[in-house]
Amino acid sequence: MSRYRFRYLVFLFLLSGLTQVLHAQPPVAEMRGAWIATVANIDWPSKPGLPVDRQKIEFDSILDVLRAMNMNAVFVQVRPTGDAFYRSQTVPWSQFLTGEQGLPPADSSYDPMQYMIKAAHERHMEFHAWLNPYRATWDLDTANLSLIHPLRSFPPNLKAQWFFRYGRRWYFNPANPFVRQYLVNVVRDIILRYDVDGIHFDDYFYPYKEAGETLNDYNEFAANPRGFTNVEDWRRDNVNKLVEDVSKMIKNYKPYVRFGIGPFGVWRNADRDPVNGSDTRAGLTSYDDLYADVLLWLKNGWIDYVAPQIYWSVGFPPADYEKLVDWWSKHTYGRQLYIGHAAYKIANSPNDANWNKAGEISRQIALNRKNPNIQGSIYYSAKPLMRNPLGVQDSLINDVYSYPALVPGIPYLAKVPPATPQICRVKGSPSSVKLAWHVCDLLSGEEMPYYFAIYRFDGEAVGNFRDPYNLLVTTPFFSEKWIFEDQTATEGYYTYVVVAYNRVNVESYASEPVYVKKTRKGAKRKKKLFGYLF
To answer: CA quadruple 523, 528, 530, 534: dihedral positive or negative?
Structure first.
């Protein structure tokens, strides 16, 4: 078989792996993420004003535990309340970082987001910057805001146009086009200065309804209805414009940066929309109460993935997890679907007894894996996973996520696959097998790889690329060392293959296989196909 025909067949085999995988054999590509909440110091840092070294230690500890659970992505809240966990000329430092909004870290060289991205990438974990776009404050005390916060620095007439008060907080006004451009600029600043893998919005658009509170935007609607006949559609259009503008801006500057949203888990109840609604009786919905028309964003291709927060158990009558994941899987419009899981409810849900039973998360993952339209999970939030309630951490490590997984690729974001790797050297010793590779046949327009995966198959043949047992290791992102030492091989015959991946996790053609015989004296190639030995 020719070299190029082999690569073509392997590539087709890789693509054929989109079929569903049973729980007993987890998929080799599956989003496994965790939301790391910074607002009110929910997950990190443990309290405001910690020394920089302590902040780093805490964050590294979270990543180490998540990585031990074979998680492959973190969604870190870098804009909780109109503030920043990163250096910015226009957005103030967060009070949840330093204890006072606008106060920089004591170490002038420390940039939290830069540090977090590097820490995640070194562990082969993606970093998605999570922003709450509209929440302007955590409380009503504007006197403690930074002098560069718009609610503090703007004159009264602009404040009235840019912000509104609702309940116990101030919010950016979604109807104001200058607010929209300001928020687009915030996101643009992040993607241009930081090596993020994604931009993520949560479920907060217009604020959650509160008893006795009314959104006082009827005069604004009457003054400029833009052809809408009711205020609800007008509000949804305000949010739509922001989502569209952010999406287009990201794809204009860095097409590989994914834009995703984690909406409230129920889009609409069927009693409000018999055609498109879900069989649920949720007290509020994303479309009708938060004015978030998620299906429109998916239809128009404005977001690359959706991660609905399905924070109810399997069989919960008002909002059954099983029914909701089935509903969302039928409304993806070709975009990726990750399910948001309520880790915070484990052993902590007085209104839903199923969360007090061990194994609820395992049951949910089993349902996900039976559905080919679901590409993975994100957990809210990191801290419950650290505490291990009802043994959930043990279950993920030993059973559900017992093998590592790649992040699923998004082919439409990659015009061409990355360049093909080629194993060029093999060296054996009694304790290990060492491989080295390079990139060959760099065709016009091909991308240099972002990382590599080394597959090892038992015996003298290429096996199943979609069996996670055969995925031996992945390299760190932007790794400069294209070399790996396998210290787990025992006596016998093995076949090694290297595959390259780009920024959106699309694979290359596979390298030609190398067959190795491992003995007590060392290891050597069964066949010398090309290249040379160390």
So the answer is: positive
